[in-house]
Write a structure and sequence with these properties.
Elements: E1 2-6, E2 13-17, E3 61-67, E4 70-77, E5 94-97, E6 100-104, E7 108-113, H1 127-145, E8 152-159, E9 171-177, H2 182-198, H3 202-213, E10 217-220, E11 224-227, E12 238-242, H4 254-274, E13 280-285, E14 300-305, H5 312-317, H6 326-335
Antiparallel strand pairs: 1-2, 1-6, 3-4, 4-7, 5-6, 7-9, 8-9, 8-13, 10-11, 11-12, 12-14, 13-14
Helix pairs in contact: 1-4
Bound molecules: zinc ion (2 copies).
Length: 338
């Protein structure tokens, strides 16, 4: 059973999904099968539900990209979902008990299996594979955006144990939620306030400045730019943005998504070689589904390497302490030839 409860004082939502505690962990491998970073170097692992040949081990397939009958990227429902697909008609139900508000834990929690091969890595796979992964994100976003139950679609990747992944096979995830979290609302509110003050999208202004200044620039091409943000929250924090203003990821055309693969590949490879395949999270940060076309928000991919741990001060204040300036991170990243 999944339920979403709201804190009375902060209005923050918490999802309670008890099934998830049964999730398997597959990081314990037999000796002799590990690569240099303690990861499995085999292309096929018998017990892995995401490996080619083990398709029967996953829940229902929702989408795939295929070539000559073989799948290259597959999307399946998460076996241990944080939110569940609705099995009734009508809107998502809200409940009030005493002073407290909760709602049904409705949503879509999907796994994007990025390769049929267990030992593939997003940072080193060829450009076409990466293009297919990004196209899959886009196709699923376009599809889910049409569902009125969902307000926000979050696509994310947890790479490595420090980043919270439970299965080693290369995969990312998507969760569509029936509400917009306060954290996201606050970002939208602040960017709208910036728009009120200056009549411009804050992300477009950042892009203009970073392209002129170039101190924090990591990489750019005709359509996309990657830089380390001025107030980076962690070392090697990177944003990848379209140069053209687009509030929601689904506003990008199929061709623009294909082009995103070039910049994204360079950025991931630079991180991989500079920091020796670091653990990281990335998130596609996009406007809520009904805010597509807004002039003050601008979708982007945020990459957060896991080189530090959030401690008491960060949790208590929401303020992070960073130990390296983004200008230095950008310079180191620019120096890595990929
Ligand atoms: Zn596998
Ligand atoms: Zn913009």
């Amino acid at each position: 059973m999944v339920v979403i409860r709201q804190d009375l004082a902060t209005r923050d939502w918490t999802i309670f999904s008890t099934e998830r505690s049964k999730r398997p962990k597959d990081f314990r491998h037999e000796e002799g099968k590990l690569g240099s970073k303690g990861k499995c170097k085999d292309e096929y692992v018998e017990s892995c539900p995401f490996c080619k040949g083990n398709e029967h081990m996953t829940p229902r397939e929702l989408f795939s990209i295929r070539e000559d009958g073989e799948w290259l990227v597959r999307v399946v429902l998460n076996k241990y979902p944080a939110l569940e697909i609705k099995n009734f008609c009508g809107p998502v139900t809200r409940h009030i008990k005493g002073p407290y508000l909760s709602m049904d834990g409705i949503g879509s929690h999907e796994v994007i299996i990025e390769s049929p091969r267990h030992n593939d890595d997003l940072a080193t796979m060829d450009r076409r594979n990466l293009e297919n992964v990004l196209l899959t994100y886009w196709h699923r976003s376009v599809d889910l955006s049409k569902n009125e139950d969902y307000q926000l679609i979050i696509i994310f990747r947890n790479h490595g144990i420090e980043a919270g992944t439970s299965l080693e096979h290369p995969h990312s995830q998507l969760i569509a939620t029936p509400f917009v979290p306060g954290y996201v609302r606050n970002k939208l509110y602040e960017s709208q306030r910036y728009f009120d003050n200056f009549g411009r999208c804050p992300y477009c202004d950042m892009i203009d400045y970073e392209l002129k200044d170039r101190e924090r620039l990591v990489y750019e091409d005709e359509k996309y730019v990657a830089f380390t943000p001025y107030a980076s929250v962690v070392p090697y924090n990177i944003l990848v943005l379209p140069k053209k203003h687009q509030a929601n990821f689904v506003e990008a055309s199929e061709e623009e998504i294909r082009d995103l693969a070039s910049v994204f590949k360079v950025v991931l490879a630079k991180l991989y070689y500079l920091l020796d395949n670091p653990d990281y999270n990335y998130v596609i940060d996009s406007s809520p589904t009904d805010k597509s076309g807004e002039r003050h928000y601008h979708w982007h991919i945020e990459i957060l390497p896991r080189l530090t741990t959030r401690a008491g001060f960060e949790i208590g204040s929401g303020v992070t302490i960073n130990f390296i300036f983004p200008e230095d991170c950008a310079r180191h990243l620019r120096e890595v030839k990929v």
